[in-house]
Amino acid sequence: MTIETIIFIIAICFVGAAAGYLGSFMVLKRMSLVGDALSHVALPGMAIAILLNISPMFGAFVALLFAVLGVWYLETKSTVYPDALVGVFFTFSLALGVLITPEPELLEALFGNIEHMVPFEAFLAVLLALAIILVTKVISKRMVLSSISKELLESIGESYKKTNLIYLLLVGLVVALGVRFVGTMLMGALVVVPAASAKNINKGMESYFWLSGLFGVLSSLGGVAIGTVLGLPVGPCVVLCSIGIFLVTYLLKPSFE
User: Fold this and answer.
1) Distance CA 150, CA 143 (A)
2) Integer distance in angstroms from the first to the last C-alpha of the chain?
3) Most buried in the list 143, 154, 208, 230, measured by CB within 10 Å?
4) 145 to 80, 106, 148, 151, 157: CA distances (angstroms)
5) pTM for this prediction
6) Residues 68-98: pLDDT tens digits?
């Protein structure tokens, strides 16, 4: 195993941990569809980056940044639910992305390809994923309160709008990191499924958060191992591994009730 391969594996594990940890709050806030939809918003950004011969990860982040800011602004000014707002971005972005993505790179953009990553992207993914985990930990109490009631959060002097913006930016960033590994069609699953698995067997809020991150790591490691051994694309293997963990925890759920 080469040093580059080890770096890539470490990177996808960090991204999996960050995605699972962030996803735990998304499940609490009943925003599971948001993570899936946002991953599709990255597609036109990746397409433009490919056409300009720059990193698709950067293009994905720029597209997601505009989408997150747009959703956040409209949420504060509109009576439409966040899921519906993201759905608008999702359908438009997916259609536009498919149209402008060069055909040879379309499959890779949709389902990921770890083999085409460069070490710098992997190293950057580790640093940013670690930053995401740390920032999420700092705002975790505020996120729990906001999932119960935004009035409850504001009663202790914290801004719901500011907290929600920070959280959405973190989600956008982790999706931008993950699309290079599992693609725009599957990244939403890496955000939501580990958290759903943790919810099946957790016995407390703290264990729920850390189990979500752990299942994200296990999904990533398992997907890389299966994909490498069987010669299959890593992205779909990661998602299928996370689904397998969910099924196991679902069967074990009665033992934890």
Assistant:
1) 9
2) 43
3) 143
4) 22, 40, 5, 9, 12
5) 0.81
6) 777 777 666 655 555 566 667 677 777 776 7
Contacts of 214 (CB under 8 A, 6+ apart): 17, 20, 194, 198
If 0-12 CB within 10 Å is exposed, 13-18 middle and 19+ buried, where does residue 132 land?
A: buried
pLDDT in tens, 162-197: 888 888 888 888 888 877 777 666 677 788 888 888
Q: How far apart are CA 94 and CA 44, in angstroms?
A: 7
Domains of the chain: 3-256 (1.10.3470.10)
Residue 50 to residues 40, 94, 100, 167, Cα–Cα distance (Å)? 16, 16, 10, 28
